[in-house]
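Predict structure. Chain length: 164.
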Amino acid sequence: MLEILGGGIFGSLIGGVFRLAPEVLKFFDKKNEREHELKMFDRQCELEQVRGQMKLAEIGAARDAAVDVGVMDAFNAAINQQAEMAKAAGGWSAALSASVRPVVTYWVILLWSFVHLWYAFQAWAGGAVAREVFSTMMTPDFMALVSGTINYWFLDRTLKQRGL
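Prediction complete.
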C-alpha cells in the first residue's frame, strides 16, 4: 500500500514542482526585468539632465557671443564717430583731437612707470632683494594697465586695417 501511496504522492509532488518551477522563474524574471527597467529609466533621466545642462551652456555661449559682437560694433561705431567729428571740425581742432589719446596714454604710462621705478629704487636702496622688488612691482593692476593700453593701440590699428 505504501508503494501506491508513495508512488502517486511522489509523482504528484514532482509534477507539481515542475509545474510551479516556470511560474517561480517567471516571477524572478519579472522582478529582474522591473529592476532593469528602473535602472534604464534612471539612466534616461541622467541623460536628459546632461542634455539640458548642455543646452543651457550652448544658449549661454550664444548669448556671450552676441554680447561680444555688440561690444565690438559699439567700439567700432565710437571710433568712426570720433574720426568723423575730428574731420568735420577740420584744421587745428582735428590735430588736437587726434593728439588727445596718445598724449594721455604717454602721460599715464610715464606716470605709472615713474612711480613704480621710484618705489622699486627706494625698496632696493632700503636693502630689499631685486627679484622681490620686481615681483612686488608687477601687480595685476599695473600689468592690466600696460597690456590694456598696448592692446588698445595695436588692436585698434589691426581692426581698422581689417575694416572692422
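Summary: The chain has two domains: 1-89, 92-164.
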